[in-house]
Design brief:
There is one protein chain. Helix 10 (about 215-230) packs parallel to helix 12 (about 305-315). Helix content is about 45%, strand content about 15%. The mean pLDDT is about 95. It is of the alpha/beta class and about 375 residues long. The strands form two sheets. A seven-stranded parallel β-sheet has the order 4-3-2-1-5-6-7, with helices on both faces. The protein has a four-stranded mixed β-sheet with strand order 9-8-10-11, with helices on one face. Bound molecules: nicotinamide-adenine-dinucleotide and magnesium ion. Nicotinamide-adenine-dinucleotide binds near residues 13, 14 and 204. Magnesium ion binds next to helix 7.
Length: about 375
């Protein structure tokens, strides 16, 4: 019997992925058994040489070929594409899968991993946004925990410890407000990619950083919270808290509010997901309440930052609509990052794709993927005309 925690990391070269590997490095009873990434062969080679997993996946086939050549002195299986990710998801010796891929590409591997009984440390929020109605019941059926890595959801999870969840009144989801908090529509007309990539408190991957600037990230998190905690949208309240000290809160029926606070460091939620229900020491700056000048709170400006209001609309429409919201956003953000559209056009494309979509209630995976494809095609069509 081994007491090692055997971990697979999907998206190991990214922001969450590399921080997960820092946690593994600091915890001698954690071992990496599988790694997957998109195309960064240099970093993947380093990670494989350090952590010696038995399996590694590169999304791009050429990247997998190149990596295989570089690792010819090692005992390791190198796979590619969706086939590779699906094989990694069911790797027998793996106990935890950290889903740190960006985008709804993580959907099928996550479902496969749940079916194979893997504990899911979930960073990839797009999975729950598009398929929460499939993932949550499936996880319950398979007896698999979905351990939130998103800092807000980890905070909510921590604020529910030992409580009767039936006595929750509402979830108070905090948001920094992003780099453009307080700005009005006119001031956002000519936002550059560089402006939008400057997040005030968190260093993250590019896509989620843009999502934080549009408040789409908070919209995705509202939908994520609905599924993770079984909350109705009207019981999820978003609060702008620019200092990012309170990571989120839960209000109970008697009015008590329980919160989790800390410095903005994703390593805490990542480690907590992998050691839950235990806590372990963690290096890094801690809160100093003598130095903490103030904590402030505001109502979000949902007229300017339509990303949030559109998420509530998508939830209200239900079924396949959150997939369209998410997929249109993924495509729009990639167009913005490639300087093909303006910042505010991200909202227009999401709204257009949602208006164009006919909701399918309770979509199965194929219908979710079809709704994604439809949103992409809609955006291509709009941009050609
Ligand atoms: P990132 O862009 O830094 O990293 C993404 C990782 O996924 C990279 O390793 C990339 O190679 C890999 N990847 C991308 N496409 C792939 C594919 N098709 N196949 C295999 N690997 C692929 O992103 P990130 O900021 O680490 O975010 C990852 C996820 O975590 C997102 O869903 C994001 O919303 C969520 N999240 C991130 C943070 C954060 O602090 N960065 C916080 C909360 C939630
Ligand atoms: Mg978050």
């Amino acid at each position: 019997m081994s007491f090692m925690k055997k971990i697979g990391v999907m998206g190991s070269t990214g922001s969450i992925g590399t921080q997960t590997l820092e946690i593994v490095r600091a915890n001698p009873d954690m071992q990496v058994v599988a790694l997957a990434a998109g195309s960064n062969v240099d970093l993947m080679e380093k990670q494989v040489r350090e952590f010696k997993p038995s399996l590694c996946v590169m999304w791009k086939e050429e990247a997998a070929k190149e990596l295989k050549m570089r690792l010819c002195d090692m005992q390791i299986t190198v796979l590619s594409g969706m086939e590779g990710l699906l094989e990694m998801a069911v790797l027998p010796e793996m106990e935890y899968l950290v889903t740190a891929i960006v985008g709804m590409i993580g959907l099928r591997p996550t479902i496969a991993a749940i079916k194979a009984g893997k504990k899911i440390a979930l960073a990839n929020k797009e999975t729950l946004v598009t398929a929460g109605h499939i993932i949550m019941p499936l996880a319950a059926e398979c007896g698999v925990p979905i351990l939130p890595v998103d800092s807000e959801h980890s905070a909510i999870y921590q604020s529910m410890n030992g409580e009767n969840t039936k006595q929750i009144k509402k979830i108070l989801l905090t948001a920094s407000g992003g780099p453009f908090r307080g700005k009005k529509r006119e001031e956002l007309l000519n936002i550059t990619v560089e402006d939008a990539l400057k997040h005030p408190n968190w260093a993250m991957g590019q896509k989620i950083t843009i999502d934080s600037a549009t408040l789409v990230n908070k919209g995705l998190e509202v939908i994520e919270a609905k599924w993770l905690f079984g909350m109705e949208p009207e019981n999820i309240q978003v609060i702008i808290h620019p200092q990012s000290i309170i990571h989120s809160m839960v209000e109970y029926v008697d009015g008590a509010v329980i919160a989790q606070l800390g410095t903005p460091d994703m390593k805490l939620p990542i480690q907590y997901a992998l050691t839950y229900p235990d806590r372990r020491p963690l290096e890094g700056k801690k809160l100093d309440f003598y130095e903490l000048a103030s904590m402030t709170f505001e109502k979000p400006d949902t007229e300017t930052f339509r990303g949030l209001s559109m998420a509530f609309e998508a939830l209200k429409a239900g079924g396949s609509m959150p997939t369209v919201y998410n997929a249109a956003n993924e495509k729009a953000v990639s167009l913005f990052l490639n300087r093909k559209i303006k910042f505010l056009e991200i909202y227009d494309l999401i709204q257009g794709a949602m208006e164009n979509h006919k909701v399918i209630a309770n979509p199965v995976v194929e219908e979710i993927l079809a709704a994604e494809a439809e949103a992409y095609e809609y955006i291509d069509r709009i941009r050609r005309s």
